[in-house]
Design goal:
This protein is mainly beta. It is built from 1 helix and 5 strands. It has a 3-stranded antiparallel β-sheet with strand order 3-4-5, with no helix packed on it. A hairpin with a 3-residue loop joins β4 (about 45-50) and β5 (about 55-60). The longest helix is centred in the first third of the chain and has 4 residues, at about 1-5.
Length: about 70
């Protein structure tokens, strides 16, 4: 629907939930497909591709994310 697309790129939306998944807060959008989130040290990473490998990082448990980078 139009409301769904108005949230940003339809390929990736990074959201968090503080109530076991009952409600979700959109934290970031990305033009990355086939992505996976993983933890390394105290950071979260979102790795996928957009024509080339792309990555984003969060240092605050997913509250904020860096811009995607190659």
């Amino acid at each position: 629907s139009g409301a769904w697309k108005s949230l940003g790129n339809p390929w990736a939306r990074l959201s968090t939930s503080d109530d076991g998944g009952l409600t979700w807060t959109l934290r970031a959008t990305a033009g990355i497909t086939h992505g996976r989130i993983f933890r390394s040290g105290s950071s979260l990473y979102y790795l996928g591709h957009a024509g080339d490998l792309q990555i984003m990082r969060s240092d605050d448990n997913g509250e904020t994310w860096t811009a995607q980078a190659r």
